[in-house]
Write a structure and sequence with these properties.
Strand content: under 5%
Radius of gyration: 21 Å
Strand order of the largest sheet: 1-2
Distance between the termini: 17 Å
Order of helices and strands: EHHHHHHHHEHHHHHH
Structural class: mainly alpha
Number of helices: 14
Helix content: over 70%
């Protein structure tokens, strides 16, 4: 099962999956030997992609722990300030598919370098935003730029690393995502407490600059990439096929709804903890994001849960855990709130692991595009959750944000129940059902 990350959706690379939207020429007969542990270049490549992951996700969520301070500085509501997060994740969601397709034409290394360079340059401007409007606009540009990194990195690894070493290499990149997303939030919290939120964003920008420089000098040249000519019609046909598959659409919706809960909770929690009755300092609020480490455990355990309970059972357990966390967080005792965050985080990552791993198994063709669409739905859920959660909090306090989360959880339950009924109807009608094809429903098992 995919390891936990802090906002980055896992991409499952399948070397057997066709890449229909791009016409490529045959690989040259003298293709270079692929990288593996112990061979020259492997360690540099691993460190380079780890650094890229740290930079990307430190930047992507850099304002999330700072929202109360941003609200106070600009004199805006929680809903307005939340757009500094939602604009970045929303732009990433819209751009991930086209930029992943462009990497097929212009190269993985070039796309990753361009993405990081633009995002880092914008990151150095973000602390000087004169208004909330400028800050939101710069954050949207950052998110759009960062969309070129995740899919390109996975494709680069699939082409340059030996299959037996691929999982370890991807794991290190995802670890960079996790550490970047978590450390960026913690760093901004403590720096903001001492020197203000603008200094905190500058600190994240400098961290990203260091990581981008390391990436530039360490990443080996792509030796097995063969550029292809883009075929927009084929890309559109592949996307339409995936969106016409009811099972894939249900999986995308499940991922988006889980992320709606998660985005709402972690966008708003800072406002609740700096206010009465908790009145926590900014540094402590930033450190709350250490709870993300729980996601590593629950995501890793998702495989065992599926083996024991089936995918439907694992989803119901994830939903139950998330629901219990939401309800616990309503209490005005800090211990209950923290335990609630632990349960919400564990449930979210388990549900995300089940849904995201099901996508690549369900799509029989165009798996890269199927995974990119899942990422888009995932980040759209993050964007919607952050904004709607903040609006709900402004209107009705934490209880309203929890109500929004419970509504999204109810959506996951409804979709799963519907998928179960569809699968049972197919079996009763004696229609052959393949466990992982578009006619079956892995989430009903």
């Amino acid at each position: 099962m995919p390891p936990a990350d802090t906002g980055a959706s896992t991409i499952v690379v399948d070397a057997s999956a066709p890449s229909s939207p791009v016409t490529t020429t045959a690989a040259p007969a003298g293709a270079h030997e692929r990288l593996e542990p112990g061979r020259p270049g492997y360690r540099k490549m691993s460190f380079a992609l780890f650094a890229a992951g740290v930079a990307a996700f430190a930047l992507l969520y850099s304002t999330q722990a700072l929202l109360p301070a941003i609200s106070a500085s600009y004199g805006v509501s929680a809903g307005q300030a939340s757009w500094t997060v939602s604009a970045a994740t929303g732009a990433l969601a819209l751009c991930v598919l086209p930029l992943s397709a462009l990497s097929e034409r212009f190269g993985r290394r070039q796309m990753m370098t361009a993405s990081l360079t633009v995002a880092v340059l914008v990151g150095m401007l973000v602390p000087f935003a004169p208004s909330i409007g400028w800050l939101i606009a710069l954050r949207a540009i950052q998110g759009a730029a960062l969309a070129g990194l995740p899919a390109s990195a996975m494709a680069y690894l699939a082409e340059e690393v030996r299959p037996k070493a691929l999982i370890a290499a991807i794991g290190l990149f995802v670890a960079g995502n996790s550490i970047g997303g978590m450390s960026g939030r913690i760093l901004t919290g403590w720096v903001a407490q001492a020197w203000g939120w603008r200094a905190a964003l500058a600190a994240v920008g400098l961290l990203a600059v260091a990581c981008a420089v390391a990436f530039h000098f360490l990443i080996p040249k792509a030796r097995n990439f063969t550029p292809g000519s883009l075929n927009p019609k084929a890309l559109a046909k592949t996307v339409a096929t995936h969106l016409g598959n009811p099972l894939l659409v249900r999986l995308y919706a499940i991922g988006a709804l889980f992320m709606t809960v998660f985005g709402a909770v972690y966008t708003v929690i800072g406002y609740r903890l700096v206010d009465e009755p908790f009145s926590l300092p900014q540094g402590i609020v930033g450190s709350i994001f250490l709870v993300y480490l729980v996601g590593t455990v629950s995501s890793a355990a998702a495989g065992r849960l599926v083996a024991r309970l089936g995918r439907r059972g694992a989803l119901y357990l994830a939903v139950s855990t998330t629901t219990a966390g939401l309800l616990l967080s309503l209490a005005d005792q800090l211990a209950s709130v923290l335990l609630g965050l632990v349960l919400i985080t564990a449930g979210f990552f388990a549900g995300h692991a089940v849904a995201s791993s099901s996508v690549s198994r369900t799509a029989t063709t165009g798996r890269a595009q199927a995974s990119a669409l899942y990422q888009s739905a995932y980040y759209l859920g993050s964007s919607a959750g952050g904004t709607l959660g903040a609006v709900a909090f402004h209107a009705g306090g934490w209880a309203a944000t929890v109500a929004l989360g419970l509504l999204a959880v109810l959506g996951v339950v409804s979709i799963t129940l519907y998928g179960t009924r569809v699968a049972r109807a197919e079996r009763r009608a004696l229609i052959p059902v393949s466990r992982w094809s578009g006619t079956g429903d892995p989430v009903s098992r």
